[in-house]
Design goal:
Residues 86-239 form the Pseudouridine synthase RsuA/RluA-like domain. It holds the Pfam family PseudoU_synth_2. It comes from Amphritea atlantica. Belongs to the pseudouridine synthase RluA family. 19% of the residues lie in helices and 34% in strands. It has nine helices and 15 strands. The chain has helices spanning 17-22, 27-31, 33-38, 108-115, 141-147, 151-154, 233-240, 256-263, 268-274, and strands at 2-7, 42-44, 47-48, 60-65, 78-82, 86-91, 122-123, 132-138, 155-165, 172-182, 191-193, 200-216, 219-226, 281-290, 293-298. Strands 5, 6, 7, 8, 9, 10, 11, 12, 13, 14 and 15 form an eleven-stranded mixed sheet that branches. Strands 1-4-2-3 form a four-stranded antiparallel sheet. The chain is globular. It starts with a strand and ends in a 5-residue tail after the last strand.
Length: 303
């Protein structure tokens, strides 16, 4: 049984709870609302309510969905910056940005839609489930239509930090190459630096500037500035350079732990070999161009 919780803001005072929930549940679960109400599965501030309930501002709403199970994830996202149309938030490691086969409600976009007034929020770009950091959303469909076609002009600078295995022989490096999936690869989602002797699918140019920030116990913290936004760009390039991201199941250890996770799952000794339960990659800074004015959004520096 899943607890699908939300909090109503003051602007929802006087709104029918039924209307509030229809916007925040999947279509299948929205159709179950009469049954959920009749069985006492919907409460407001810990009190069971009926289908004709009207919201007061600041209430905590809980919907219990019998028979529905979600994978446990870190749901502690937070708002970093916003204006009238856009919302920049922090996504934790292991929180999927959108629905998966295991999670419908414990995803970033579902949490934002339930826990803010922006029930129609849209993702403007994506981060891998295991990648943490700054991600940009549109508050509604109109803002999404306005900004998504202009995303390259809107997002002027993207900086990531990656902990990698080993110590590079360089302090800085600009890497520009073609990336592509490889025909016949055992790991379908994996991308490779294009090699003329192999058969690749639709190579795409990629460009990243790498800079060493610090080294600790045989590992290195690298700043990665993206000039293009290709699938798995940073992870694939760093692996090609001989320094896979710590905890990377696809690009480290020849993909052994990715395949093992699919076939039989991973145990504590596997995570110890990987060095982390998730890959150590984080989007730390995003600079926007809002009508010609730069807006820098950065994660707080951790001591």
């Amino acid at each position: 049984m899943t607890d699908c919780s939300a909090r109503s803001e003051t602007e929802f005072c006087g709104i029918a709870l039924l209307d509030f929930l229809r916007l925040r549940l999947t279509s299948a679960d929205a159709q179950r609302l009469p049954v959920l109400f009749s069985n006492g599965y919907i409460s407001v501030d810990n009190e069971v309510v009926s289908a004709d309930y009207t919201l007061n501002g600041g209430s905590r709403i809980c919907v219990y969905l019998p028979g529905h199970q979600e994978e446990e994830v870190d749901t502690h996202w937070r708002i970093l910056w916003q204006n009238s149309e856009l919302l920049a938030v922090y996504k934790p490691h292991l929180l999927p940005v959108s629905r998966t086969t295991r999670n419908l409600y414990n995803t970033l976009i579902s949490l934002v839609r339930r826990q803010t007034p922006y029930a129609d929020a849209r993702l403007l770009h994506r981060l891998d489930t295991e990648t943490a950091g700054v991600i940009l959303l549109a508050k509604n469909a109109m803002a999404d239509r306005r900004w998504k076609p202009r995303l390259d002009q809107l997002m002027r600078k993207k900086i990531y930090h990656a902990w990698v295995e080993g110590i590079p022989c360089w302090q800085s490096k600009l890497m520009e190459c073609d990336l592509s999936e490889k025909a016949g690869s055992v790991i379908r989602s994996q991308v490779y630096v294009v090699d003329a002797i192999d058969r690749f699918v639709k190579p795409r140019n990629s460009k990243t500037a790498f800079r060493v920030l610090q080294t600790v116990a045989g590992r290195t913290l690298i700043e990665c500035r993206l000039y293009t936004g290709r699938k798995h760009q940073i992870r694939a390039q760093l692996s090609y350079l001989g320094h896979p991201v710590v905890g990377d199941k696809i690009y480290g250890h020849q993909g052994h732990f990715y395949l093992k996770r699919i076939e039989q799952g991973l145990d504590d000794s596997d995570y110890q070999a990987l060095g982390s339960r998730y890959h150590q990659l984080q989007a730390v800074e995003l600079t926007l161009d809002i009508e010609g004015l730069p807006v820098e959004i950065a994660l707080p520096v951790q001591n």
